[in-house]
C-alpha cells in the first residue's frame, strides 16, 4: 500500500479505536465458536499440504461440523515440537516450492530470539503475521488511550531494533519477526491509525548496530522531547539498556544537540549518519536545559530520569512480565510516578493475548486470548507431588483441551495451530488462567517450561529462580549501597555433589559479609521439596554465588547479537548450559561465595 492509500485507509482516531474494541468484544464473546471457525479457516487454507495430508488422508473437512472438526483434528494430528517440523521448514528454506506446510508459498522466515533455548529457530512468517501484529497493537493502543490519552500527532520514543536480514539457499528472506514487522506496511499503518509517530527514521531502527542505533534513538528522542507522548520498546530490557547508556552518553548527546552535529566516534555508519543529519539542527537552549536536568539527576542516581527529560510522556510501555520482571525495579527508578504499562503476550510463532487492563501494575497483568489469531489448545499441567522422586519431567500432563474448556486457577502449556503452517505445536510456555474477558480466557504468564535448574530430584523453574534472586537482592539493597544489574544461573553437575551457581552483576559496593548473606538467603529460599531434601542430605552441594565484573552481561548480549539475535527480542537466559556464556561468566567472576544455609542441619545429622 502506498502512503496515499495508507492515508485514505486511516479514519478518525477515536472511531478507529471504537472499531477495534467492538471487534474484540464480538470475537471474545463467542470465543469458543470463533476458535472452531479459526481452525476451519486454517485447515481449509492449507488443505492438501504435505503435512496435513499425512494425517488427514482423504478426509474432506468441509463436510465435518463444528465441534466434530475440533475432535477430528485433535484425534488425527499429533502434538508437535519445533524439532518435529524442523526438517520440513529446512526444505522450505532450501527452496522446495511444493506445499509442505502451507498452500501459500512461504517467502519469509522469522528467527525466534533463541535466548531462552540457546538456539534460534526458523518459523514461517506471512502477511497474516504482520496483520495480527498490527491488530494487537491497535487493540492495545485503544485500551490504553481510554486511561492514558495521548495527543494526536505526538511522538513515540521507541527503542526498537531490526536485525540483519539475509537469504536462505532457496532465496527466502530471514530476520526476526520484529524486523519483518518494522519493514512492513503494517508498521506504517499502525502509526497512521494510532496517530502517534516514532522519533527515529527507519535507518536508525535497521542500522544493525544496536549501540549506534541507541545513541540516535536517544538523540532524536531528546530533540523531540516536548512532543514525546510515551516511551516504549518490545521488551523492557531494551529501555533499561538505553537509559543505562544515557547515563554515560548525556554529555556527548548535549554537544550534538547544541551544535547540530553527530558524534563521529559514536556514529560511523554512513547511511545512519546521513539519515540523522538530514533531520537535526542546532538547539543550544534545549542542550542547556538538558544539561541542567542531567546534573540534578546525576545527584539522584538518575531517579525520575524519564519524567524529568520527557515532561509530556504519559506512560512507559513494554513487555514487563516473565523474564522481564527483574528489570522492573530499575524501570520504576527511571520512571518515578509515571505509569508502567505492560505490553501484550506473543511469540515469533503467533500473537496470543492482549493486556486489557493497562492500569494494573505489571506484576498483576493478564492477557486476554485473541481467538482469531491461531487455534489454541491448552495442556493441563500439575506440579509433581512433593515426595515424587521421578526426574523425567517437571509437571504431570493431561490431554490438551480447547480454549472453551479451560478453568480458572489451572496451569497449562500452550499449543498452537497457526495460519503459517504450525500444527498442534507446543510453544513451551506455562500460563495460568486468571479469569475471563467475555468468553475468552485471561492468562497469567508463569514461565518457560523447559527453563529449569535441576541437579537430581530438584526442579526449579525460571519463576522459582526469580523469586529466590529477588529475596537475595532485597537483602543486597537493604544492607549495602548496591543494586542487582542482571543475573543468570547454571546447574553444575560436573563436580560431585552437583550444585546451583548463580551469577550476579551488581552496581555499587557491597561488603563480603553482605554478599555471603545474600548467597545464604538464596540457598535457603528455594522451597522445592526435592531441593530442600537434597540440600539436607548433601546430595546437592551449597549454592555458589559468583559476582561478575561490570559489563559482563553486556558481553553476553554482544555474543547473542553477534550470532544474529536482535536487541528488540533479547532476553537474558536465566539458566544456561551454553559453554561460551559459561566461559564469559567464569572468566569475569571476581568473587565466589558458598552458602552456609544448611550447615547446621548437616552438623546435626553427623552427630546423630
Ligand atoms: P521469541 O523467541 O522472541 O519469539 O520470544 C517469545 C517468548 O517470549 C514467548 O514464548 C514467551 O516465553 C516470552 N514472552 C513474550 N511475550 C511475553 C509477555 N508479555 N510476558 C512474558 N513473556 C513473554
UniProtKB/TrEMBL annotation:
InterPro entries: GH3, GH3_C, GH3_M. The keyword Ligase applies. It comes from the Eukaryota. Residues 464-579 form the GH3 C-terminal domain. Coiled coil: none annotated. Residues 368-448 form the GH3 middle domain. Keywords: Ligase. One of its GO terms (molecular function) is acid-amino acid ligase activity. GO terms for cellular component: cytoplasm. Belongs to the IAA-amido conjugating enzyme family. This is GH3-like hormone conjugating enzyme.
Amino acid at each position: 500500500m502506498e502512503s496515499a492509500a495508507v492515508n485514505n485507509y486511516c479514519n478518525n482516531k477515536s472511531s478507529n479505536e471504537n472499531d477495534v474494541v467492538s471487534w474484540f468484544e464480538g470475537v471474545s464473546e463467542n470465543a469458543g465458536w470463533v476458535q472452531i471457525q479459526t481452525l476451519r479457516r486454517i485447515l481449509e487454507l492449507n488443505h492438501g499440504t504435505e503435512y496435513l495430508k499425512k494425517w488427514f488422508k482423504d478426509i474432506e473437512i468441509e463436510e465435518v461440523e463444528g465441534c466434530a472438526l475440533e475432535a477430528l483434528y485433535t484425534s488425527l494430528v499429533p502434538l508437535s515440537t519445533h524439532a518435529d517440523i524442523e526438517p520440513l521448514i529446512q526444505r522450505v528454506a532450501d527452496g522446495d516450492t511444493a506445499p509442505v506446510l502451507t498452500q501459500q508459498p512461504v517467502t519469509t522466515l522469522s528467527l525466534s530470539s533463541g535466548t531462552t533455548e540457546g538456539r534460534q529457530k526458523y518459523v514461517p512468517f506471512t502477511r497474516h503475521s504482520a496483520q495480527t501484529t498490527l491488530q494487537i497493537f491497535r487493540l492495545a493502543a485503544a485500551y490504553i488511550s481510554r486511561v492514558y490519552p495521548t495527543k494526536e500527532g505526538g511522538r513515540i520514543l521507541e527503542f526498537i531494533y531490526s536485525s540483519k536480514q539475509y537469504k536462505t539457499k532457496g532465496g527466502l528472506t530471514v530476520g526476526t519477526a520484529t524486523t519483518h514487522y518494522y519493514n512492513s506496511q503494517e508498521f506504517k499503518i499502525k502509526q497512521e491509525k494510532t496517530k502517534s509517530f516514532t522519533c527515529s527514521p527507519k535507518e536508525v531502527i535497521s542500522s544493525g548496530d544496536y549501540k549506534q542505533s541507541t545513541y540516535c534513538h536517544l538523540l532524536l528522542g531528546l530533540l523531540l522531547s516536548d512532543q514525546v507522548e510515551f516511551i516504549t520498546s518490545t521488551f523492557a530490557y531494551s529501555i533499561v539498556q538505553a537509559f543505562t547508556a544515557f547515563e554515560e552518553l548525556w554529555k556527548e548527546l548535549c554537544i550534538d544537540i547544541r551544535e547540530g552535529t553527530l558524534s563521529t566516534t559514536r556514529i560511523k555508519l554512513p547511511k545512519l549518519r546521513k539519515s540523522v543529519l538530514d533531520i537535526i539542527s542546532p538547539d543550544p537552549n534545549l542542550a542547556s536545559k538538558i544539561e541542567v536536568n542531567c546534573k540534578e539527576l546525576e545527584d539522584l542516581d538518575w531517579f525520575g530520569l524519564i519524567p524529568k527529560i520527557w515532561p509530556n510522556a504519559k506512560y512507559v510501555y513494554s513487555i514487563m512480565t516473565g523474564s522481564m520482571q527483574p528489570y522492573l525495579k530499575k524501570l520504576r527508578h527511571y520512571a518515578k510516578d509515571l505509569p508502567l504499562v505492560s505490553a501484550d503476550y506473543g511469540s515469533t510463532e503467533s500473537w496470543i493475548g492482549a493486556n486489557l487492563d493497562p492500569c494494573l501494575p505489571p506484576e498483576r497483568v493478564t492477557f486476554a486470548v485473541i481467538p482469531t489469531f491461531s487455534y489454541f489448545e491448552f495442556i493441563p499441567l500439575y506440579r509433581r507431588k512433593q515426595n515424587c522422586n521421578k526426574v523425567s519431567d517437571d509437571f504431570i500432563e493431561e490431554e490438551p483441551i480447547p480454549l472453551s474448556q479451560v478453568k480458572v486457577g489451572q496451569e497449562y502449556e500452550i499449543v498452537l495451530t497457526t495460519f503459517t503452517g504450525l500444527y498442534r505445536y507446543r510453544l513451551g510456555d506455562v500460563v495460568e488462567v486468571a479469569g475471563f474477558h467475555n468468553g475468552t480466557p485471561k492468562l497469567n504468564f508463569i514461565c518457560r517450561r523447559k527453563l529449569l535448574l535441576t541437579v537430581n530430584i530438584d526442579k526449579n523453574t525460571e519463576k522459582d529462580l526469580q523469586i529466590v534472586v529477588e529475596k537475595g537482592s532485597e537483602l543486597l539493597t537493604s544492607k549495602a549501597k548496591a543494586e542487582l544489574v542482571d543475573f543468570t544461573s547454571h546447574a553444575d553437575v560436573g563436580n560431585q555433589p552437583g550444585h546451583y551457581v548463580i551469577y550476579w552483576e551488581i552496581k555499587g559496593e557491597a561488603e563480603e559479609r553482605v554478599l555471603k548473606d545474600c548467597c545464604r538467603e538464596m540457598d535457603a529460599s528455594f522451597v522445592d521439596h526435592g531441593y530442600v531434601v537434597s540440600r539436607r542430605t548433601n546430595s546437592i552441594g551449597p549454592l555458589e554465588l559468583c559476582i561478575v565484573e561490570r559489563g559482563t552481561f553486556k558481553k553476553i548480549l554482544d555474543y547473542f547479537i553477534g550470532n544474529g539475535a536482535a536487541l528488540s527480542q533479547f532476553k537474558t537466559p536465566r539458566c544456561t548450559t551454553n559453554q561460551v556464556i559459561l566461559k564469559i561468566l567464569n572468566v569475569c567472576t571476581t568473587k565466589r561465595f558458598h552458602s552456609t544455609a544448611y550447615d547446621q542441619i548437616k552438623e546435626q545429622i553427623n552427630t546423630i
